[in-house]
Amino acid sequence: MQVTRELFNDVMVPNYNPSEVIPVRGQGSRVWDQNDKEYIDFAGGIAVNCLGHCHPALVSALKEQGEKIWHLSNVMTNEPALRLAKKMTDATFADKVYFANSGAEANEAALKLARRFALDVYGDDKTQIIAFNKGFHGRTFFTVTVGGQAAYSDGFGPKPAAIDHCDYNDLAAFEKLISDKTCAVMMEPLQGEGGIISPNNEFMQGVRALCDKHNALLIFDEVQTGVGRTGALYAYQDLDVTPDILTTAKALGGGFPIGAMITTTAIAQHLKVGTHGSTYGGNPLACAVAEAAFDTVNTADVLAGVKQREQLFRDGLNAINAKFDVFSEVRGKGLLLGAVLNHKFEGRARDFLVASTKHGLMNLVAGTNVVRFTPSLVIPIEDINEGLARFEQAVADVVNG
């Protein structure tokens, strides 16, 4: 069978419009397509491939577990899931872990737990969920409604109720919304899809304090920021704010589908037997790969390396900007970075992505105005330099029309 981009149009539901490029193999931070053209990967599968492609530790874990046991169902537990959960609780504020298959599922579990907790402890009135405009929390109907982008949630009929939004970093607006009827506040500790927006310190401290005042649970969606992406194992650890519930996915499996919700014993006890579940959640194959990814990332060397690489990206992007004057700023943290287009190139982020692909570079956008970079956390320095050289050629193409 000949596999071409045209086949996509014949056999796939049209909710995606993928590039003409079909990658067939990857090694480290380089990828080759069907024609054996090489690309440098600054996209990382949207902050997923935290150790690049075919990292030996992950390949080895997959092969080893693949010859032991793949799936059991949650009628029985399994060793990889228990080992991974223990490592996650040892390394974070949490005592308990719930495994799912994706970030959306982890967020769905977090939201259901928050509602269940509030009803059990405080009664029927405490149902409001507050989230933030431009936030993104997944594509299930509950999570997409909590996400602050109407374009993703409109057009599917009546939405889940008691969900309100205000602007990120606007503490005064948040204070007006929150009350004793609020059961949970869901936020990203650095907004990803919404444009790579960092929180300011006063906002973070204020949200935590107001949640405490009103007995509302603070849920951190660390699907994109988690597992080393910002230079800490989890972003909350650099912010001096601890959430009540945290969700993690994407980089957790280094490319293998897995998600998790983590929380304290006191909160976790409200998801008693039968209240929530997942057929594949905690699958031994996924947990074995995730354990290898978690162990590899959660080291002083790798986390310090993220901050070193961030500086190389910032310096490189600033040098390109000094030549071409296309960005108003480079924002974000660690290796979750966004180059914000200035007024002359407003709304043209996709043009930079298309030009990059032509020059053998994979990157991303975050909205129409931000070019996003989420490469491997261990991307070799020479690949950063070569990728930035290719990006400079792409920028030149866009600038010169």
Automatic annotation (TrEMBL):
One of its GO terms (molecular function) is transaminase activity. May also have succinyldiaminopimelate aminotransferase activity, thus carrying out the corresponding step in lysine biosynthesis. Its cofactor is pyridoxal 5'-phosphate. It is found in: Cytoplasm. It holds the Pfam family Aminotran_3. The keyword Amino-acid biosynthesis applies. Homodimer. Its EC number is 2.6.1.11. It comes from Pseudoalteromonas haloplanktis. This is Acetylornithine aminotransferase.
